[in-house]
Specification:
single chain, 84 residues, mainly alpha, two-stranded antiparallel sheet, 2 helices, elongated
């Protein structure tokens, strides 16, 4: 894409509420809308966190905390790899 077709705002700092532009073929378009977490999603995240902590505390007297955190990191990496 040539510089002549780029609007002056591309590459400039964004003002609050302005969506950055992305290249779509030969033209620039706003980035797709990304939803912000709602209260429902925040509540679901809290529930998931409590379930994860409960699973870790279930093994509290049998494994060191460092091992539990290591397992969380392994699971995180596996989830990232599976959804990449």
């Amino acid at each position: 894409m040539s510089k002549e077709t780029l609007p002056a705002a591309v590459g400039a700092p964004l003002k609050r509420g302005v969506r950055p532009l992305v290249e779509k073929g030969a033209r620039l378009e706003p980035r797709p809308f990304i939803a912000i977490a709602t209260k429902t999603q925040a509540q679901k995240a809290g529930e998931m966190a409590e379930e994860i902590k409960a699973a870790i505390y279930k093994h509290a007297n049998t494994v060191p905390l460092a091992l539990a955190i290591g397992v969380l990191r392994i699971v995180e990496r596996e989830l990232m790899d599976d959804n990449a």
